[in-house]
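Re: beginner question about structure tokens

> Can someone show what the tokenized structure looks like for a real chain? I only ever see the sequence side.

Sure, here's an example I had lying around. Input first:
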Amino acid sequence: MNVNECPILVSSSDAYADIWPAFFHILRREWPEYRGRIVLNTDTRDFSFDGLDIACTRACRDGRHPFGTTLKRSLDAVPGDVFLMMMVDYFLEGPVDAARLQRYLDAFVAGGADAFFLLPQIAPANPVAGVPDVEEMDVSKTSGFAIQTLFSFQAAFWRKDEMRKFVADWEDPWFAEYFGCRRAKVLNPRFWKLADSAALPIPYDRSGVLHGGGRWLMKSVDRVDFAGVPIDLEKSKAERGICRDGGHPFLTRQLRELHRLPARVAMWLRSMRQLGSLRRPDLV
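And the corresponding structure tokens:
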């Protein structure tokens, strides 16, 4: 598979429609060789960008659905079995190293891994033979805080059927990542990652450019070249707000989420039960 034609699934929603032009302008600028199909996860909107083949899923056009459901509908729209996962609020900070990315994709397809996270992780890992700068995570030996890094929606090559195993239909993005890590611990998948010393083939700040309720995270924004990008950044800062410290203080976040507490408790319990069913099939 030519990496410049590998399908890309961009995780998003209509709430991010104002930054779509900026994300795709930067993607086209930093990866000019790319000519594959891009599946953009949207709720009801369509979107296009000159020079890119973008298919919008409009996954909620028949009614409102949780993130997990819309993500799986987006997976249905991805051609083939292997794809590259990206998130719309993670802007590229420099050119994509397509040649190195091609080597990684070839190794991933041939090696039979379930996912290849294109960045370092703190989980224990062992080198992949014959593939410089690539390691296979030892999921079974991962413990403590490192468990929280086993699964995420960061840039990664995925096998479509494997990603389905790590996200439940009813979950929002944060619960999906939290429980996805714990599902990984139970399912013990073959996850690859970059070695700590390796440069990122897709350079970006893993904090994202938006944080704390969709506000611009300045420590990430300042790393991005916005020259010629189709966005009025100052106007957007005024509308979305600015986040300088990485997020809201803990208490503020909890107070903002108080009205959603019953729904989040129900989601938590449902995900806990589903996780238990993976450990004990008799619970299903």
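Each token stands for a local structural state, so reading them left to right follows the chain. The mean pLDDT is 92.
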